User: Fold Protein-L-isoaspartate O-methyltransferase from Nonomuraea angiospora.
Amino acid sequence: MTIDTLSSSESPDLARADMVAQLKERGSIRSPEVAAAFAKVPREKFAPEAPSIAAAYSAMDTVVTKRDASGKATSSVSAPWLQAEMLEAAQLTRGARVLEIGSGGYNAALIAEIVGPEGLVVTMDIDPFVTERATRFLTETGYPQVKVVLGDAEHIGDKDGPYDAILVTVGAWDCPWGHLLAPGGRMIVPLRFCGITRSITFVRDGDRLVGLDPTVCGFVPMQGAGAHHEQVAALAGGAVTLTLDGGPALDTDALDQALTGDACELWTGIVVRSNDPFDTLHLWLAAHDDTFGVIWPNPDHDGEGDLIKPVLRWFCPALVTSDSFAYLTYREAHRDHETEGRHLEFGIHSHGRHGVELAERLAAHLATWDREWRQHPGPQFTLHPADVVVSAPVIGRIFLKRHTQLVVDWSGLDPV
Assistant:
């Protein structure tokens, strides 16, 4: 079913107003300019694949618009909460020049509303299916001034630059667009490293870019010359997926045997409430252990729940070697009657001949994070050109990429 076949009783205007109200309430919309854009642009026109008006305007959900032969999403309309967060981070003004990498049309229309007819919006995508749709939808909804470009963003020119803002709406492993920023410009990039993604707002500081406000998010990965392929091991016929960015080659057969063999348990004594955020744990592990990876079960696979019990449904922290792994699990924790909510104790399940060693290492990282960094907002991010010498942080790590070096630095921060 598409938008065209929906019941006429479903009102896009009411759904749009409700979405804006929700985004304001959760703090994703903070300015009148962003609110006005979301209140005006008809999202349902850019997401005909949505099964209902309610689905098109769900504040927390994406709408997948294209899948590959395996069923994996290759294009989507991002969740409104995340689009609003990125637009607010960009601090767009009337007349601004904006580049969007990763198209679809809806986000470009929101940008066009904010910058007005005196501004410039360029939206680029590598997929002709996406750019054809974006051009058509933008014209039909009254935004023909948006410039839609078909091409690989890895090789983008500076014809229309410099830009006051660059918004990247695909998962990017690298960031070769800093030279296109105008003085005082802001670039918002969902940057991938070690299998995790943070949407980071970068501002220029000399020859480097300083990262602000890292936000947990997920995006369809970049295609073309800028694509980056992590190691992926599909275990137990696809019931469980392990990923590792770099490191020794994963031996899927050995990992398969490890998964179905005996597991070891290690309980840490670290307790969290079920709704406590602990996303800085991923960053701490990524910065301190080059075997950091992620694990998750396939929800569509029969019996997958019997194989692993990760603390997170998606992208659960793990340490991974070629033939062994250890991951974060949980059990109900005892608590006194005065403490409200469900409490969980972190534990570690390990598999394979090096599993016990990995579990002990993971437990040590957890203990340091829990003792000193759990209440801290997280590390500092800076992005440097690939050809400059960068001092390694005392506490942290440098992630080497093709065009840049991402420094994740905990050194200048006071533990909590």
User: Anything to note?
Assistant: The chain has two domains: 3-226, 231-373. The longest strand covers residues 181-193. The radius of gyration is 22 Å. The domain at 3-226 is CATH 3.40.50.150 (Rossmann fold).
